[in-house]
């Protein structure tokens, strides 16, 4: 298999990937099967599968990007880099709104599967950051 066939629908903010297939015929059959589901704009997009020896030598480093406000973590997502991800926490410059954003390293991507563990990592890192800012640590 050198290609994938992706059934997509919508445009711009409504754009969505519906399903991914290993052959064009199944992708076309899927569209025929779901043509009456209100997705008349489904289409098949074809992409080459990228295989390159250079990828085998790349070490992936994982991290968390987060946004935190006074009432909790508002957003977090996994980040990838080819060099180690460093702890980088920034506090909002606005005195009336206590908020933070930044990146934190993860030892492996499996940690990201447990959202409670990720939240604990973020809360602990921000607490340490606050203590260092206050001169406690």
SSE layout and pairing:
Elements: E1 3-9, E2 16-21, H1 24-33, E3 43-48, E4 61-69, E5 72-81, E6 88-91, E7 99-106, H2 115-134
Radius of gyration: 22 Å
Count of extended strands: 7
* Number of separate helices: 2
From the spread of the alpha carbons, the general shape counts as elongated
Tell me the strand percentage band.
35-45%
> How far apart lie the N and C ends?
55 Å
Give helix and strand order, one letter per element, not per position.
Answer: EEHEEEEEH
Biggest sheet, spatial arrangement of strands: 5-4-7-6
Structural class: alpha+beta
- Mean pLDDT, all residues: 89
User: Biggest β-sheet: count, sense, barrel?
Assistant: 4 strands, antiparallel
Proportion in helices: 10-25%
Note poorly predicted spans.
none
């Amino acid at each position: 298999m050198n290609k994938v066939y992706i059934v997509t629908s919508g445009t711009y903010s409504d754009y969505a990937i519906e399903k991914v297939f290993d052959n064009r015929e199944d992708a076309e059959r899927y569209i025929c099967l779901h043509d009456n589901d209100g997705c008349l704009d489904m289409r098949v997009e074809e992409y080459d599968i990228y295989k390159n020896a250079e990828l085998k030598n790349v070490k992936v480093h994982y991290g968390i990007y987060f946004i935190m406000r006074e009432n909790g973590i508002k957003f977090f997502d996994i980040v990838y880099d080819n060099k180690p991800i460093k702890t980088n926490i920034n506090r909002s410059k606005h005195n009336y709104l206590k908020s933070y954003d930044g990146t934190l390293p993860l030892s492996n991507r499996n940690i990201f599967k447990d959202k409670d563990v990720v939240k604990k990592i973020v809360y602990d890192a921000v607490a340490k950051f606050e203590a260092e800012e206050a001169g406690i640590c």
